[in-house]
Amino acid sequence: MAKRVGILYESDEWSDWKLHRELEAALGRPVAMINMEADNCLDAAAECEVLVSCVFASAVFRGHEHAAASMNALVHGALPESVELINPRRAHGFEVSKAAAAQALEAAGLTVPPVLGLGRPEELRGAEERWRYPCVIKPDCGGRTTHTAVLHDASQAVAFLEEAPDLRFIVEEFIPARAGFMTRMELVDGALALVVKRSIAPNGLSSYHEGSTYELYPDCPEPVREAVRAAAAALDIQFGSFDVIEGADGRTYLIDANSVSNVSEDCTELFGGLDLMGCYAEALARRIDGKA
Ligand SMILES: Nc1ncnc2c1ncn2[C@@H]1O[C@H](COP(=O)(O)OP(=O)(O)O)[C@@H](O)[C@H]1O
Ligand SMILES: [Mg+2]
Q1: pTM for this one?
Q2: CA of 94 relative to ligand 1 center, distance in Å
Q3: How far is CA 177 from CA 109, 220, 223, 248, in A?
Q4: Which residues lie closer than 8 Å to 271 by C-beta, 6 or more apart?
């Protein structure tokens, strides 16, 4: 019997439905779309044999707290172990905590930015004087550069914390990029499917949502690629993406680990014609059914 496959999602992202279409085509059978906002989502999930997670850490900022909570329950025992999750359950813990990802990467011998602080705004207040500047402050469970800033001095930190929502934040040393860009890598079943340079906006951040531009990066040095392969293996992220900064000191800093890859429709163009969700679907079908 062919395995029953489902996609877990929290909102009508273009990429969720694109993946659904491509995966049904690659498998040659229906794939369930399981809305993690729905009350019966865990029952629906348990009816599948393989699940692909498209629930983002940023769900919490986009009004999908219920989906985030359901996903958390699902990876922590609410889903029978016999149901395979892609990525493995452990990876989701790194999607929703940058601090947990940084700790696991460091334990694996990889380079991450030094962490200066971790806590809710009221816990961080008063510690700003001890941070080294510039630094970056961002939600521990975050995404899409929401509530993220480069801080240049303690007075900016005070102002940021004054306005910040009551979330757990991580404060890291700001890592200057040797060549002025951030390196973004997409992994498809553990292999590097795409390496791009993403420009850094005037506010010091690099992000699709900050208007950063993309450029293919075929000559990305092998040690940088290898650091990302090692990071993916350390975090059990087989399908996902990493943001890395090639530091002025020659080290490869792992900035962000995403166990759900977020692409919008125009990304195919930005990615030099690579259809990332199509690649995902083919690799998933190979994995699930052993066919292309
Ligand atoms: N320690 C850091 N040093 C320099 N830039 C950083 C650092 N942390 C984050 N950034 C910048 O902020 C952006 C958003 O941070 P990131 O950790 O990727 O969070 P998100 O989940 O929002 O993508 C990064 O792409 C990068 O440009
Ligand atoms: Mg990022």
Answers
A1: 0.95
A2: 15
A3: 21, 14, 16, 6
A4: 194, 196, 214, 216, 263
